[in-house]
């Protein structure tokens, strides 16, 4: 696929947590501008397809926020979500993400099953969160609420000050689905998993990458698949980068996967093309291995 000039450049920084003070201040200022609808800084959503192992087709997408700066650079969330959480700007940011995600879902209604959105603990702890989601859904009467999936992390749930199970239960009453993100990186207490009203478990990529060559990872994955299934939950494997991992997951009975193997997160126009073209795993494999026509 030809790359358009200019756009879609992803600026890569290190993972060093000791971000210099000036950089933090700059990040905060940029975020403030973006949230104030300063057109020089925007917060577009990128979309990563989720693919069914049964059909090889796109069944949904995860919306992942980006920040486009005045210079046209695109920043990954690692560069501003932390600041957004610390300053409380995650609340308006999160609302923007939800609204934009639902707008896109409405636009892609005939092609896309669902959209999932990441929700930070701070958002979930807001007294207004559930009413806000309800009001938003009411604005889109043609979108069935079950087509919206909210992703929360285990660690977020544990550290929260509010009764998260109760809040998730209220969201479920709206018809929204809930996914446990990065599953396996937190405590993963089995009792606790049972008590959480989640519909989907997203297996963290640390268990997924290289699983085809690692019997221990394969065992963990089988166990989680079995457990999730027994509790009536579905499973999505994250971070599937290799064809061998895709095959291993499919054979293990994992219903859906997400990862660079199929596609990186894409800006909306590129995701749109992929969706409308009906791109399948077979198409991706054929183009990767030089086109078996
Ligand atoms: P996440 O929700 O676990 O999202 C998956 C991350 O893994 C994304 O990074 C995605 O680009 C990356 N990824 C997907 N497939 C692969 C793969 O095959 N290999 C590898 N190595 N990575 C893969 P991204 O977009 O940089 O987002 C990072 C995190 O930022 C997300 O992790 C999520 O926790 C957070 N985030 C993103 N958007 C939002 C948002 O709108 N609100 C909130 N609160 N958090 C967000
Ligand atoms: Mg703006
Ligand atoms: Mg996520
Ligand atoms: Mg994740």
Explained architecture:
The chain is α/β, with parallel strands linked by helices. It is built from 13 helices and eleven strands. Strand 7 (177-183), helix 8 (190-195) and strand 8 form a beta-alpha-beta unit. The chain is globular, with a radius of gyration of 19 Å. The model is unreliable at 1-7 (pLDDT under 50). Bound molecules: ligand C2E and magnesium ion (MG) (3 copies). Residues 62, 118, 151, 181 line the site of one magnesium ion (MG).
The mean pLDDT is 89
Number of helices: 13
Helix content: 40-55%
The succession of helices and strands, N to C, reads HEEEEHHEHHEHHEHEHHEHEEHH
Query: Which ligands does the model contain, each kind named once?
Result: ligand C2E, magnesium ion
Task: Give the beta-strand count.
Answer: 11
Strand content is: 15-25%
Q: Which parts are unreliable, with pLDDT below 50 for 5 consecutive residues or more? A: 1-7
Radius of gyration: 19 Å
The strand order across the widest sheet is: 1-2-5-6-7-8-9-10
Report, as a whole number of angstroms, the end-to-end distance: 17 Å
Q: Give the overall silhouette.
A: globular
Protein name: PAS domain S-box-containing protein/diguanylate cyclase (GGDEF)-like protein
Organism: Actinoplanes lutulentus
Question: Mind sketching the topology for me?
Answer:
Layout: H1 21-35, E1 45-52, E2 58-65, E3 67-68, E4 74-75, H2 81-87, H3 90-107, E5 114-118, H4 121-125, H5 129-139, E6 148-153, H6 154-159, H7 164-173, E7 177-183, H8 190-195, E8 200-203, H9 205-208, H10 215-230, E9 234-237, H11 243-252, E10 256-257, E11 266-267, H12 268-277, H13 281-288
Parallel strand pairs: 2-5, 5-6, 6-7, 7-8, 8-9, 9-10
Antiparallel strand pairs: 1-2, 1-10, 1-11, 3-4
Helix pairs in contact: 3-5
The chain binds ligand C2E and magnesium ion (MG) (3 copies).
One magnesium ion binds at residues 34, 37-39, 41-42.
Organism: Actinoplanes lutulentus
Protein name: PAS domain S-box-containing protein/diguanylate cyclase (GGDEF)-like protein
Domain EAL: 24-279
């Amino acid at each position: 696929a030809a790359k358009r000039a200019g756009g879609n450049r992803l600026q890569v920084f290190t993972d060093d947590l000791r971000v210099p003070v000036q950089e933090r201040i700059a990040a905060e200022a940029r975020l403030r501008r973006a949230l104030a609808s300063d057109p020089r800084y925007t917060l577009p959503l990128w979309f990563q397809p989720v693919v069914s192992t049964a059909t090889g087709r796109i069944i949904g997408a995860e919306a992942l926020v980006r920040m486009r700066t005045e210079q046209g650079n695109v920043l990954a969330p690692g560069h501003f979500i932390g600041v957004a959480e610390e300053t409380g700007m995650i609340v308006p940011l999160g609302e923007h993400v939800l609204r934009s995600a639902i707008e896109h879902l409405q636009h892609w209604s005939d092609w896309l099953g669902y959209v999932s959105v990441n929700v930070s603990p701070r958002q979930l702890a807001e007294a207004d969160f559930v009413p806000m989601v309800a009001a938003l859904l009411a604005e889109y009467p043609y979108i069935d609420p079950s087509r919206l999936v909210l992703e929360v992390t285990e660690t977020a749930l544990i550290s929260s000050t509010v009764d998260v199970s109760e809040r998730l239960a209220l969201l479920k009453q709206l018809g929204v689905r809930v996914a446990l993100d990065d599953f396996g990186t937190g405590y993963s207490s089995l009792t606790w998993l049972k008590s959480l009203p989640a519909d989907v478990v997203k297996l963290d990529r640390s268990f997924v990458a290289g699983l085809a060559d690692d019997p221990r990872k394969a065992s963990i994955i089988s166990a989680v698949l079995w457990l999730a299934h027994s509790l009536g939950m579905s499973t999505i494997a994250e971070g599937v980068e290799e064809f061998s991992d895709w095959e291993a997951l499919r054979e293990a009975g994992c219903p859906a996967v997400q990862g660079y193997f199929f596609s990186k997160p894409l800006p909306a126009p590129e995701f749109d093309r992929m969706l409308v073209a009906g791109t399948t795993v077979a198409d991706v494999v054929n183009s990767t291995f030089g086109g078996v026509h």
